[in-house]
Amino acid sequence: MIRAKVVSMLLFLALLMGVNAMAQGATGAPNIVVILADDMHWHHPGFNGGPAETPNLDRLASGGSSLTQFYVHSVCSPTRAAFLTGRYPFRNGMEERSHGNDVAGMLTDERTLAEGLREAGYYTAIIGKWHLGNWHKRHLPMQRGFDYQYGLYGALIGYWDKCRERYYDWHRNEQTLREEGYSTTLIGQEFAKVVKAHDFKKPLFAYVPFNAVHGPDEAPVDLLEKYRALVAKRPGEGDFEAKKYAMLDAMDQSIGKMLGTLEAKGVLENTLIVFFNDNGGRKSNPPYRGGKGENTEGGVRVPCILHWPGNVPAKQKVDGMMHVVDLYPTLLGIGGGSLDQSLPIDGIDMWDTITAGKPSERSEVVYSVPGWEKADTGPIAIRKGDYKLLGEALFNIEQDPSEETDIAGAHPEIYQALHQRLLELASERRIPETHTNISKTIDEPLLVFGEEENANPPPWLEPYVKGLPPTKRELQRAQNRKKQDSK
Ligand SMILES: [Ca+2]
Question: Would you say the pTM of this structure is higher than 0.70?
Answer without folding.
Answer: yes
